[in-house]
Design brief:
Layout lengths: L1 E2 L3 H13 L7 E2 L27 H10 L14 H18 L8
Parallel strand pairs: 1-2
Helix pairs in contact: 2-3
């Protein structure tokens, strides 16, 4: 499953996957906040979600707020992105205290 709001980026991804002969990807041309669970996206056991460093706090929070995840693992390098990862964890912990459908360890 690839969820991408940019048609151009999605087309590049499709071409790359065709070149690599990867055929088991469903492409959804929408923003995360517009994705409807059960309509656009079926529940999955594992979702890998890559977040560019410049949008981590807002972009990462949408799937969590929408209840699209039960568990989240954040992997960051030892540079400025680790600061962003810490901010994500703090925000998620605050949101969980307000009754979000997940917990933060």
């Amino acid at each position: 499953m690839a969820i991408e709001p940019s048609k151009g980026t999605l087309e590049c991804l499709k071409k790359d996957m065709e070149r690599e002969r990867v055929e088991n990807i469903v492409y959804v041309n929408k923003q995360w906040e517009d994705v409807e669970l059960g309509i656009d996206v079926e529940p999955h056991d594992v979702v890998i979600y890559d977040v560019p460093g410049d949008i981590v706090c807002g972009g990462f929070g949408i799937p969590l707020r929408r209840g699209l995840a039960n568990e989240v693992y954040i992997v960051a390098s030892a540079d400025y992105l680790s600061i962003a990862a810490n901010n994500i964890c703090r925000g998620a912990r605050r949101f969980a205290k307000r009754g979000a459908p997940y917990s933060v360890a």
